[in-house]
Amino acid sequence: xKTKWKVMMSDPWKDIAPPNSLDAITxxxxxxxxxxxxxxxxxxxxxxxxxxxxxxxxxPSGKLPNLKGIEVSLVSxxxxxxxxxxxxxxxxxxxxxxxxxCRDIVAxxxxxxxxxxxxxxxxxxxxxxxxxLRGGSDARLSSEEQKGLIGEMFVLQRQFMSCLASxxxxxxxxxxxxxxxxxxxxxxxxxxxxxxxxxxxQIAISSAAQLDDAGTDALFLYVVELDQAxxxxxxxxxxxxxxxxVREALIQRDSGVCEAFxxxxxxxxxxxxxxxxxxxxxxxxxxxxxxRNGFPRIMTTALMSGVANVKYSVSLxxxxxxxxxxxxxxxxLRARRHVQ
Length: 340
Fold this sequence. Notes:
single chain, alpha+beta, Yope Regulator, Chain: A
């Protein structure tokens, strides 16, 4: 066992020579016994690379993780028959940490049944590391991140799991993978937001794509009030309690989807080992809005050339005419299921 560990953790880049041209990569396969095309590589400037070659049909559609000290990019080959997901380490002195990340990704993706799933698992694992490498001494989710995840758990269990098969419900949860909408089931999308009940009646929108309904049949906005509560407050709960409740419901319905659920939780930055006991939450009112023409928002098509990374706030007082009944989303999901 000691010899195997030594071999596994030896520097995989030490015997790779830099390429001779700017657009080339020299590489060697990570493990010939793994079906998916993972490679150790070097760039022309001698930087350590980790590469996943895949077909364009398996390419990710969401935004790529932004890791501290590691550049993540998607590159197309000139033949248009292959794409590469490339991780580039900016400081080779950190190659031990980088190797740990890469091997963790390979281990996670090795269980994939398809290449597309392997790419998705690669990015999901990378999002987990994104949270671990955010910096600071506390790797737990912030209070704002906790609220956001709780809101998504509410939508997942109360809406998607009540209307769809467990696998379809979990597959619809896209937020942890960096997609512009938190949930996508076919052309039905949902954006979930959590806010303090006593705060100004508005929500923060993080991109022009978030409330853009182009390409959808229906886009819903879910807003729930979540407030921190003192110990002993009736009905209060912690983030792990909510997550455990959803996980238990999945196990009772279809335990086979729990692995995918756990991967998404990790991508969201949630770890079972973290202690959230000091963060107690109480749920207040919640509302659904149908985002359509006239809804106060900024859309991608309205942005002038050169404008990017748009963030803005929406006043909920101006959205009252777009309120819909809580079962409107579930009715739309059931209708979609019946026509498939």
